[in-house]
Amino acid sequence: MALKQSYKALNIRLNLLGKHHSYVANSYFLIGLSFGEKKKYSKAINSYKNALEIRLKISGNHHPEIANIENYIGNTYDKKKEHSTALDHYNLALKANTFLEKNNSLNSEKFFDLNIALETLLFKAKSFQNLYHTDLDIQHLINSIDTYAKAEKIIGNIREDLKNPEDNITFSSTAKEIHQEAIKTRMLLYNNTNHFKELKHSFYHSEKSKANTLKELLNASEAKSLLGLPPSIVSLQKKIKTDNAYYQSQMAKAFKQKPVDSTKIEKYENRLFDLSRRRDSLTEILEKKHPNYYQLKHQNDIITIAEIQKKLGNKTTILEFFTADSITYTFLISKNKLTVNEIATPQLIKEIELLRTAITDKNTDEFKKASYSLYRQLIAPIKNHINGDQLVIIPDGSLWHLNFELLLTKEDISNHPSELSYLLKDYAISYANTVNTLFNKFKNNSLSKKGQECLAFSFSESTKSVDSKSISLATLRSSGGDLPGTRREIKAIADIIDGQYFYGSEAIEMNFKKNANQYNILHLALHGEVDNKRPENSKLFFTQSNDSIEDNLLYSHELFALDIPAELAVLSACNTGIGKIAKGEGIMSLGTAFQYAGTKSLLLSSWEISDKTTPELMKYFYTNLKEGMNKAKALQQAKLQYLNTADINRTHPFYWGGFYLLGNTHPILFDTNYSVYWKIGTGILVIFLLSVFWYQKKKSKKLR
Fold this sequence. Notes:
The chain is 54% helix and 13% strand. The chain is built from 26 helices and 19 strands. The protein has a seven-stranded mixed β-sheet, with helices on both faces. The chain has a five-stranded mixed β-sheet with strand order 5-4-3-6-7. Strands 12-13-14 form a three-stranded antiparallel β-sheet. Helix 2 (22-37) runs antiparallel to helix 3 and helix 11 runs antiparallel to helix 12 (262-289). Mean pLDDT is 81; it is low at 442-449 and 673-678.
């Protein structure tokens, strides 16, 4: 039917417009697409060539439209398994997309359309792979890899031109496909040559494909603090970010109003457009007048295997995943070893969904089956290569929805949840977006201490409560009973750490924004809501009603404008760690937004955890932190302690397994840690002085 309509349109256009018109070329092109879908490749090629002939007469030899048609001709030859002819057309596409200099020579560095050039290089690299499968000549793999290297340069150029995080996230899907094919080619070459460098390059592509938006935003933050931009520039950056967050919030509200006020929306869109132009102008100024800042912000070096291994302890292994269509690559890095494996995972998304359903339904039998099945696929093939008891997992794609510590290492007979063979019992597990963000070379990864320990907030039904205020956690600790509006988990942690607690009428967004950058730990016992369609509109609720200044909804996009350099943020609201999976970027959750704001690590939840169990878990977690355990170990031991002491009716993974740690795992220094170290040091000094005294006394006796 589509083919018939296209021919009808072609005849009308030929009669009205003549042979050499762009609309006629479009008709031939659409006919080519229809023949291609029907696998009538020769007819498709003839139609594309008719379109090409017209375009050449209209535009000349150098035009992106010519390149686009050559790409389709090349693709069709590739499907016919005429790979060499396909390569010829891809080369013609690159030539057509290239600027012609005044001396009539081609400038191969400059393309009319970078996106079309990127597409051409991807097709060309795949054709080289197909040629390899035809004659097993490894030179074709080397040619394919060289082509991917050129594509990667273009990816970098495109990213520099993207003006906002949303565009970067959209582009990441395209970039990931390039890196996916590059890994596939590298692994084919490794299987032929056994050269270790191919494994290192494969890891490079895996890292390069992940969380580029997050990396760029973190680089910008570090560049600003390291290179000391003028206060006026910093102030202007801040204002643009804050205004952008404000108008995005207004847009989100306007879309929810019924009926939708199109005048308001147009007004906010215009404001956002103006802010975008101001941001572009500021970028130009930074590039020209502050080149060091600009280069540091856009630096995209990937940490090497050798650098990672220098930073790793003997008991830590990094496990990075890269998911393709039905294959998952695993990269295991320990102190002295890199191992790369290819695992068949044809039903991965479905199996993860089955496991999550079994957890939320509290179905122990289904949980055991799904959990053990995923363990056998993902962990069992590589278990012998994991060194130590600290495991840092860098998920990809749907694996962001899998809590690995809940995987079962055996086909358990018992149905008692506390007796099951959780991976948790073998490893302290934490998660990271990429190795680069985990070991950011601009960050000082040593233990740090800020002036105040913990800032805590709990959700309030209203801001109108008269008797509630902010109080110190020490005061809450010594209070006889629960104060109005307090949460049990806040009371539980108040017995362990010091800080300030906002509840009731004081638990408002304005107070959070005013105080968040002054504390080592943020504990937010709030309600959360994830917006999967527009992740930037996911939010935390402080109250059910608005305060006089803010709306008491902390949106993800508002966090972009804040500086929150906390060591740890605990978001015990429901579902803070779930969100949309953006291909090539990872999970777009509320937790990710806190990372944008500079928070080093987060404790998040994958589903709604029961209010009855959270206080116990938090009590164990903070006690372990206070004793000096690193964050991952503190969480692992808290879960095991909970399992050993909880009521049998609340030991199913649903009640405790949803929390996970994202980011660095370093211990947190508390004031009491210093007193412990002081006492130990004093004790050692006393022992030393007594030893000297004893030795001198013994010596003087001998002299007598």
